[in-house]
Specification:
This protein is mainly alpha-helical and about 50 residues long. About 75% of the residues lie in helices and about 0% in strands. It has one domain. The chain is elongated, with a radius of gyration of 13 Å.
Amino acid sequence: MLTWIIVILLILWLLGYFGPNVFSGIPRSGNALHVLLVIVVILIILRLLGIA
């Protein structure tokens, strides 16, 4: 379950980062990208430590 959350958050982050450059219909999301990246990194660290 946690793996799917990590994958979905990474995909959303990649879409937000590269999306406006590739597809003009995707709006720029600003700081939300950094929040998603921090959440993904925290989840990966928890997964590696075996806490979650």
